[in-house]
Amino acid sequence: MLNARTAHTTIKDIAKQLGVAPSTVTKALKDYPDVSEGMKEKARGLAKKMGYLPNSVAQSLQSGETTTIGVIVPEIKHHFFSAALDGIEEVAFKEGYSIFVCKSNEDYEREVINTRNLLSHFVAGIIVSISQHTKDVGHFIDVQARKIPLVFFDRVSDEIAANKVVVDDRAGASSAVAHLIESGYKRIAHLAGPDYLNISKERLKGYAAALKKAGIPFNADYLIYGGFDEEDGVHGFKRLMKLRPRPDALFCVNDPVALGVLLECKKRKVRVPEELAVVGFSDNPVVSQIDPPLTTVAQPAYEMGAVAAKMLLQQIRHGNGDFVPEVIKLKTKLMIRKTT
Amino acid sequence: MLNARTAHTTIKDIAKQLGVAPSTVTKALKDYPDVSEGMKEKARGLAKKMGYLPNSVAQSLQSGETTTIGVIVPEIKHHFFSAALDGIEEVAFKEGYSIFVCKSNEDYEREVINTRNLLSHFVAGIIVSISQHTKDVGHFIDVQARKIPLVFFDRVSDEIAANKVVVDDRAGASSAVAHLIESGYKRIAHLAGPDYLNISKERLKGYAAALKKAGIPFNADYLIYGGFDEEDGVHGFKRLMKLRPRPDALFCVNDPVALGVLLECKKRKVRVPEELAVVGFSDNPVVSQIDPPLTTVAQPAYEMGAVAAKMLLQQIRHGNGDFVPEVIKLKTKLMIRKTT
DNA sequence: CTGAAAGCGCTAACAG
DNA sequence: CTGTTAGCGCTTTCAG
Fold this sequence. Notes:
The structure is a homodimer of 340-residue chains.
Chain A: H1 4-7, H2 11-18, H3 22-29, H4 37-49, H5 56-63, E1 68-73, H6 79-94, E2 98-103, H7 108-120, E3 125-128, H8 138-145, E4 150-153, E5 163-167, H9 169-182, E6 188-192, H10 198-213, E7 223-225, H11 230-241, E8 249-252, H12 255-267, E9 277-282, E10 295-298, H13 301-317, E11 327-330, E12 333-335
Parallel strand pairs in A: 1-2, 1-3, 3-4, 4-5, 5-11, 6-7, 6-8, 8-9, 9-10
Antiparallel strand pairs in A: 10-12
Chain A binds a DNA duplex (16 and 16 nucleotides) through residues 5, 8, 10-12, 20-24, 26-27, 30, 34-36, 39, 54-55, 57-64.
């Protein structure tokens, strides 16, 4: 086993070389006022020459603080999450923080382990997008009980009061459906996500609201619940096509579902958007490149991460005791392309 | 500023409650043989009740080791890197390690800062994909001088001897061109990348080798150097189309270039693959979804990350002094779709 | 079986 | 201006 210690120069080493006390070196290196300029120069020079790097583990132990932020996401490789991570890293880096990245793999148990692990590492705060299967949020309550700042983004829970960054799903959905209505579509169906998830609920509400606003009656046959994947799109599409009258437009809970629909349309020679208009949600990079390019609601993934990081840093710096949890809703943007 | 310390239960707290010494609690909690079963149970019970979590900062300071791996990538949100990160995280998690993720933003200075930062945090090892603009690798030499295990992946440098994980670009290119030849194409052109980069050179060599093997003479007109973006594809395509005889197939240095070609084909009504076959490189998620789906050479991004993490862990565990640097070349996979 | 002591590297408080 | 001391939380001797 490697003994990292032997390879590192410490403040003691520098002090010994200089024939002074360690604390003097600390002060010199930190540019404290009550150390002579000469000492400072000597210390800096020797530190550089010896390749001294502060041991932040020791610093953290002594101060009781780290400059590390823990992040838990369900997946890393999905574009939405990697873009959010990118935003978090960017803000953290600029503020002198590093990020610990954990993936829950959409697994509740693993999310709990990740949380404990982060706590064990004394992180200054935690940013989370919860896994699909997390119903119990006890582990997050525990984080708060320990006074560790906590911010949720995108996948949030109503069961816990905390800072949150979400997208205005309802307004986004509503604008998508309104666009469909304005374009002349009359029979607009919705392929919804799992009914217990916030984003599904919100997008459904937006769909319903837009219909209502236009005076179009809600048709229960046109609402189909499913999951978040392509196959859910395929499946939903098949059920919809059996209906009479057939819907002439389809608002999907996300892009993969819309992709599934498009795939099936191609197979069955259903012309898009003439026979069926399709709208997605997320604006994954794929969907602007396919034929026809998908109309969809863009979520500002990078910005969500950046905002979450800023909120967390705020909480870390300005104390955690007296703040009032806030929910920031970012705006979506309707990307009108060729499927509507 | 939050005082994290006050919120945490320590081993001392447990010891006090139990009326024993801290060292006894440590031993009890770690299930050492020379502690009574009764003591162990009491300690475990109280630890749980008090919500004790080991302070890994203190543990690291005392042992001189961390269970943290540092990762530096040029970007987080690009699919290749996020997939690699996913692989790294997966392996690290299973082995009880956490990952510190840093983004260099393709910026040399930032990469240097990231490296120092990781070193300061006493990471057990570092995995890197270097930035486009890194010419000097002194900061990585420094890592090695400090006996910190170091593994490069994908973007590697010839200037430093270390463990590396790359893809067999040459064989990948060769297989793509061989496939074109087998499919009956005769006049195969190549849109190459910048001539000073390793991957460009290797892919070009693979192209030339496949031609030679089939006894097809190399035609200098059919080789065009460019960059890595869509516009380079558009530009290269235009030049190629002026040639007589026109090429009937085109091997592109990567997917975006191929995408540019496809775009232009659509515009000019060049039928793919009847009039022109097109092959890319990377297998970005986009290209399987476009119409027609692109034949391309898949790079195992996730696996590259996983392998890099395994190599690093190996180095961490089995000492770092006496090992011989190794370069692992992973196989690419030809994804035959509809453009050939 | 349990305890006391020492120390990882750093720094704040207090003395000199 | 510089030094001494003590302690962050944990663990590893070595004694009892």
